[in-house]
Give the backbone structure.
Amino acid sequence: MDFSYSEEQRMLTDSLRRLVADNWTRPLRRARQKTGKLDVAAWNSLAELGMGGLLVAEEFGGFGETPATMLAVHQELGRGLVSEPVISSAVMGVTLLGQSDNPALKQKWLTAHAEGEAILALAWQEEGERDAQQPLSTRASSTQGGFQLDGKKILVWHAAGSDALLVSVVLDGETAVLLVPTNSVGVTVTDFPTFDGSRAATVTFERVIVPIENLLIKGALAQDALRKALDFGIVALCAQACGAMAYLTDSTIQYLKTRKQFGQPLANFQVLQHRLGEMLIQSEMGLSMTYVATIALSEADANKRSRVVSMAKVEVAAATRFVGEASVQSHGGMGVTDELEVGDYFKRLTYLDVLLGDTNYHLQRMQDLEA
């Protein structure tokens, strides 16, 4: 896979960087977070630039881009701390929906997503089953003309701003995924802010009637599709982490060049030069491993793909921890105040460590897949 930008990728990333620089400044970003709601105008600006259709196949009105383009785009989103549901919807949701064997459902929702008229949320986590991908307590039973859905999902990323939920359930003793409109009768969404200023929710399903045509995928294919969607999401998350680390490293370098002590810039002190050097090394190591994971997304062997993706998540998590802490320490007491956005980046990098599986989970998955 070639990671040197094509002319189209360069134009896209340049346009995205300008958009993020204009619309995701610290005041605008924090103002959106305070509202506690999805900023429709901000999301539409991303959709107009093609974020909604990036991974959607051309037959459904999307661009059908490669994982390499996804990596380039999400690096820019990470640099700007964009917290809109690009990963949850335009990566994980679209990837899962694209593997469905329900052509009518794909035509309707993928086309709507590519046109910026739909937002998806993946509901797969349950209480007492941390990071487990197989549903246990959320169940669907056959009823006249469809299914009755009961259960609860936790930590559903951007559920409150979604138009439809992709819900993993136990159906006839097998794993299945249902598409459930978020405004369906019996669906309760309890929204809350996350540590980094994003949004998540607990979603409860009480006797929700789901039409039979909303069955997305079932059986072993559903488990494979869910796993692939999460792998794509993890790689996109790693790419955003790399973008955030690059921005944080650059801003730390500039701060140390301008801040003076004993009549000279802090950047002249050797101990701080060593710290900056290590920040650059850690950032590059994380980015290099993300490249490897991006290549692995095209791997036919699902076990090999997931193992490499977990390796990348572990490497990037270690890098983000070091870069975030080193940046805050380099800024001194100012690094933890609201006057600087260093703290915003530190929170995001800290949160990315546990999102979509923490280090312990991915180390265990690597071991399990190696056997």
User: Anything to note?
Assistant: The two ends are 28 Å apart (CA to CA).
